[in-house]
Amino acid sequence: MLRVRDDDAGAFEELVRRYQSRLVRLMQTLAPHTDLAEDLAQETFLRVYRARERYEPGAKFSTWLFTIAGNVARNAKRTASRRHEISEMDAPRFLGASDDSGPLLATTALDASGMMPVRLAEGDERARLVRAAVASLSERQRMALILSRFENMNYVEIAETMGLTTKAVKSLLSRARVGLKESLDSYMQSGVLDEDLHVSQSLPSTSKMLEQFQEPHRSARSKPDNNGKSTGDPSGGDA
């Protein structure tokens, strides 16, 4: 990133190649709908380039990048919400045709994201259940979970990225795990996720499916709050 700051065009191209697929996958999870993922990833890189002269060498680049990405995604959601208020015709694209369709649209985004650590295959009942459960979480819980489990960030890094304290991050992750368990328990008891997906008796237990989301051992990587420097979004994006 220091080379990018010094206007090295080749360095910026290398940076985009290194992070583009990860950023697109994140946007497919956070964006109003998956069609926007690549555009929002490009917008994020554009903000990075515009803010290159303000990049602080002490800041971890991935933390800085995902902070900007989170702001870009939130701005996109606000824009989508305003469009929904103007025209009901846009509702199926952004919010779903009914109150029940929102989780299904979110599940579709997760289907395409490749973020889940289970092998995705057509008709993989277990994977669809877990993805739907993740989609039912709040945006902040979902982002904290993604950064923790799939970007391998520690508490301090997640806190810097999301503009929170480490205590708040721990609380988010704890509530996310509780939410996942409740969603999966509900699906297992009812036997139905939606009209197209019925839970079979051969699925593993809820606790077994949640093993991938158990609390990681962070003591070796974590550091005290006062050592973590918040980088924010130097590009001036809305928080």
From TrEMBL:
Domain RNA polymerase sigma factor 70 region 4 type per the UniProt entry, residue ranges: 129-177
SUPFAM superfamilies: Sigma2 domain of RNA polymerase sigma factors (SSF88946), Sigma3 and sigma4 domains of RNA polymerase sigma factors (SSF88659)
Bias-annotated ranges (Basic and acidic residues): 214-226
Pfam families given in the database record: Sigma70_r2, Sigma70_r4_2
Keywords, comma-separated and alphabetical: DNA-binding, Sigma factor, Transcription, Transcription regulation
The keyword Ribonucleoprotein belongs to this UniProt entry's keyword annotation: no
Gene Ontology BP, a term: DNA-templated transcription initiation
Ranges where the record places region Disordered: 203-239
Family the entry assigns: Belongs to the sigma-70 factor family. ECF subfamily.
Protein name, per record: RNA polymerase sigma factor
Taxonomic path: Bacteria, Pseudomonadati, Planctomycetota, Planctomycetia, Pirellulales
